[in-house]
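Hi W.,

Here's what went into the run:
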Amino acid sequence: MLTVLFFGQLKELLNTTELKIEGEYQTVAELRQQLQKKGENWQEFLAHGRALVAVNQTMSNEQSVLSDNDEVAFFPPVTGG
Amino acid sequence: MTHFTHIQVQNEDFDFAAEYQKLRDSSNSDGAIVTFVGLVRDTNLEQDVTGLFLEHYPAMTKKSLQQIVEQARQRWPVGSVTIIHRVGQLNVSEQIVFVGVTSEHRQAAYHANEFIMDYLKTQAPFWKKESTTQGDKWIEAKQNDHQQAKKWE
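Here's what came out:
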């Protein structure tokens, strides 16, 4: 089971803080594609390039491999400092 | 006294003088200390800012800042490093972030401090939401910040 988190404005746009996802996803790309099917908002705001991704608290990319019990976070480009 | 890396993410304000003193006390062989402080500005893109909310990804922030410091250490002979980043609700003119670096000679401290800020601005999981006289607004990442970070590649 994957834990999927959302931060920043993305959390508001998707009206979701956290999801628990069952099923097998080999890569971030596969997971992203599946989540985008949830609706128009998801299709648009979760698009590659609009939403960055971290796997187990490390910045990752579309090819990053996922394992069971991983924590995946999606968020807008960061604006700290 | 030994060199340290001190990373703190907190809502409370930090004491600049105290942080500087800790860096200073950490070594007698370091001849340089370079510090940066980021503040909440009262205007952004011509709107009056009344406050700032800093959201963050708690499990990732410290880890991300540690990785940035490790990269700085690989590139330059840096002594002690302190990063303090505030989160939560802040008012105009308040301190947001402190980055302090020591080194034997000034080049390493100057470069490492700039590097740490450039990478923090593009990699560390914080997001700013401004309150303005015209409502709340999430700040958008700046192209300029990404270009600044690229110069280190």
